[in-house]
Design brief:
The chain has 263 residues and is α/β, with parallel strands linked by helices. It is 32% helix and 25% strand. It has helices at 46-53, 76-82, 98-103, 118-130, 146-158, 176-192, 204-210, 228-231, 234-241, and strands spanning 8-17, 20-30, 35-39, 64-66, 69-70, 83-86, 164-168, 196-200, 213-218, 221-226, 245-249, 256-260. Strand 7, helix 6 (176-192) and strand 8 form a beta-alpha-beta unit.
Length: 263
Amino acid sequence: MKKLFSPIKIENLNWKIGENRILENIDVEIEKNKFVCLVGPNGSGKTTLLKNILKIYEPEKKTVYIQNNDITKLRYKDLARRVACVPQNTVIDFNFSALDVVLMGRTPYLKRFQSEGKRDLEIVKKCMELTNTLKLKDRDINSLSGGERQRVIIARALAQEPDILVLDEPISNLDIQHQIELLNLTKELCQKKKLTVIAVLHDLNLAMQYSDYLILLEKGRVKAKGAPEKVLTEENIKRVYNIEVCILKNPINQKPYIIPITY
């Protein structure tokens, strides 16, 4: 019988810059095909944790495992075939077409100086269809709206054919319409494409609505993890964010809804 393994497993991960400890004793195991949200105040270590998962910061050996592989032993090209990222900053300095940007996602599959072939173009077309960006293929990436550009960047990530999709504050610069559209798209991809999704979100209500699993960070440590309603309790929010809230049930879907208490 084939051995099952978690897409991401983190064991006793510590990270510091100089003498400043950013992450401390992180232990997390993420199940396959789940939408996972990282939440916590500014400076709690969310982006640093993602950078360790992406090997932008190289963690110590035997602390971060991607599909049962010690990340320190994975070549960057091999890692890019397993994990794709949608970063905070999606501004592109050069005037590439949207199609050219999505084609960049095929880089992990190409040899040095090799051009994209027919199969690469077919994969890119499907990814652009999935993200409703094929109609934008000839547009200059910098002429697109924030929501359109973000969908193109997701298409580029999908073109890597990953099993894991990482999003670092993907909705921070979008209006509410585009926030919902992007989260709906990501949730759909998680379900239909069988992707494991890890997203950093600041909006606790959106994290509560969309995630299957939540990880709450405070000062570089995991304060709570598990089902959203078990993690984002009134007590945990007061302790970590230092604000009082009231949690009610959303009358539409019966999920918890967080309301800050102001006087």
